[in-house]
Design brief:
The protein is of the alpha+beta class. It is built from three helices and seven strands, in the order E-H-E-E-E-H-E-H-E-E. A hairpin with a 2-residue loop joins strand 3 and strand 4.
């Protein structure tokens, strides 16, 4: 596994991973390049990505984290999350679908705590978001 910044050529793969991950946020993948985006490659192929941004000094937000369904349960999301948390100190926040128990467990195992709930935050299908935070 290698974690690196994405290249323009990676956007199509990021878009495919996002399309195969309806439980994640559905943003325009090209916009990820405007933020702090990292990809994880396995055997030279992009297998997952994490996008985050600074929202205020000392405060960051994870916008999206997704792994190719064929590459899940191999530690890729955990590696991407560890990379992000190691690269920037401070307060971290994210929203996750209330039904996405695998993601909630991942974040909790990394030290995130539930901080609130946003009713009907997600669409297609409508669903609450769990707000989570981490302080490093």
């Amino acid at each position: 596994m290698t974690i690196r910044s994405p290249r323009l050529a990676d956007v199509a793969v990021i878009a495919a991973i996002q399309a195969a991950s309806p439980e994640t946020a559905q943003w325009n993948p090209l916009d990820y390049l405007k933020h702090d985006c990292r990809v994880c490659t396995v055997n030279g192929c992009v297998a997952g990505y994490l996008v985050q941004r600074e929202v205020a000094p000392g405060e960051r937000e994870i916008l999206n984290l997704a792994v190719d369904p064929a590459e899940r349960r191999k530690g890729i999301a955990r590696q991407l999350l560890a990379d992000a948390l190691q690269r920037a100190q401070g307060a971290w926040f994210l929203e996750v679908r209330a039904s996405n128990t695998a993601a909630i467990q991942l974040y909790e195992s990394a030290g995130f705590h539930r901080a609130g709930r946003r009713p009907n935050y997600y669409a297609d299908p409508a669903e609450d978001a769990i707000v989570m935070r981490f302080f490093s």
